[in-house]
Structure formats: structure tokens, C-alpha cells
UniProtKB/TrEMBL annotation:
GO cellular component: cytosol
PANTHER family xrefs: S-ADENOSYL-L-METHIONINE-DEPENDENT METHYLTRANSFERASES SUPERFAMILY PROTEIN
Keyword Iron: no
Enzyme class (EC, first level): transferase
GO molecular function: rRNA (guanine-N7-)-methyltransferase activity
Record-given protein name: Ribosomal RNA small subunit methyltransferase G
Family: Belongs to the methyltransferase superfamily. RNA methyltransferase RsmG family.
Annotated localization: Cytoplasm
Region of interest (Disordered), ranges: 218-239
Keywords: Cytoplasm, Methyltransferase, rRNA processing, S-adenosyl-L-methionine, Transferase
EC number: 2.1.1.-
Encoding gene per record: rsmG
Function: Specifically methylates the N7 position of a guanine in 16S rRNA.
Amino acid sequence: MTVDEFVSALKNAGIQLTENQIQQFEQYFDMLVTTNAHVNLTAITEKKDVYLKHFYDSLTVAHYEKALQQTTGTLIDVGTGAGFPSLPLKIAFPNLQITMVDALQKRVKFLQDVVTTLGLTGVTIVHGRAEDIGQDPKYREQFDYATARAVARTSVLAEYTLPFVKIGGEFLVMKGSAAEQELADGQKALATLGGQLRESFEFTLPNGDTRYVQIVDKNKKTPKKYPRQAGTPSKKPIG
Ligand code: SAM
């Protein structure tokens, strides 16, 4: 997807980028490939692929949870890596307040550099594991939205994300073709952690790849014992 195709696909979806925002995406792309030469950030480095599989794909969650486009609310992105999906969301919807979490210090340093270079405000970057940060009262049940992409299967991801979400907030699940199976396997985890599926959307990216966005409502408090200690959710998923 070229930059022009990216801009017009978003326009067709009702998302109009300004010249400044288009330039911020260009700066982000430049920093991603430059830094990736010495820090492992992503396997995707071709410009057309970065625009489709990182930038456009990250924004698809806002096609299905349209409130993200207008909100001044808070979103936490768990296992954000090089900033996906939260940095494209922040660039496209500057009123959104984002918190990015990652366990790898080198990726956190890259994110800090991007945020400074692009002049973004309303961004918090936290280095650590979701299991530890989810027990910190500063972050626990503080967010309107939690999301994550390519971090873990849904049963595990629920334990990484739902502890951060306020009652009345949402866990936004972004998945590929295994989404329905992962959701079925994750039902027990979602219910245990206070979540309930509201809606599942299936769609295709412009290259034909299947994607899902699933909206999970947080309607009960997460029991204190979750998240369990670092490493346990992936070794012994709930259910
Ligand atoms: N979300 C990004 C994306 O879609 O490109 C990065 C995906 S990358 C495959 C997974 C990232 O999750 C890595 O950067 C890793 O350090 C982070 N991660 C995995 N488990 C984590 C945990 N329990 N807490 C915090 N970060 C975690």
C-alpha cells in the first residue's frame, strides 16, 4: 500500500488525515527502518508493507470501535513492540490518551524517541511485564480501552489486558484467522476476569488477509489474584 493508497483508504473509511499527520506517519516509518538496522523492532520493513500491515492494520480497530476516533479517553496497548497498534491510533486520533507497555527496554527507548521527534503529547510509556504492571494501583482498572496485537492467544491476552480496564470499559481484541477458535478457548478466561463479548467483526485487509476485531465489555471487577505472577498466564492459561 503506497502512502497515497493509505490516505485514500482511510478517507473512504471516514478518517481524514491532515498534512501534518501524513508527515508524522512518514517520520515514524523513517525512524522504524533506521532503528531496525541495529535494534530488532520488526520483520516488516518494505514501505508498502509497513503502511499496510502496521499502519493501516493498526487503525482498523477504530473502524469497528468508532468511539476511538473522537474520544479524549485512555487506551493501554500491552506488548506494543514498535508501537502497534497504539502509535498509529495516536497519530490519527490525537485526542486519545495512550499508554504503551512493553517488556523490552530497547523497544521502549525507540518509542520514547518517536514520541519526542513527532512532538506527541498525552503518551505514557511503561517498561515492564503486563502481569506486574496490572497489579500496580496506578494502572489497575484505570483505562477506558485495552488492546494488544500479536502478543498472545486470547485466553492469555485476557489476563494481560482486562485487569487494566475500568468497569464500563472495553478490551479490543485484534486477531487474524484463528480469532473465533481463540475466542472459544478464551471464554472461561474472559468471564473469570470480568469480560463479556459484545460483538465480533470479520473483515479483510486490502491485500485480502482475514482480520477480526472483537469488542469485549468489562462489566465486573477483575479478582485480585489476577494477573498472576509473570510467566504464569502463558504457562497455565485460565480454562
Ligand atoms: N504489538 C506489536 C505489533 O503488533 O507489532 C508487537 C508484537 S511482538 C510480536 C510482541 C511484543 O509483546 C514484544 O515486543 C514483547 O516484548 C511484548 N510482550 C510479550 N509478552 C509481554 C508481557 N507479558 N508484558 C509486556 N510485554 C510483553
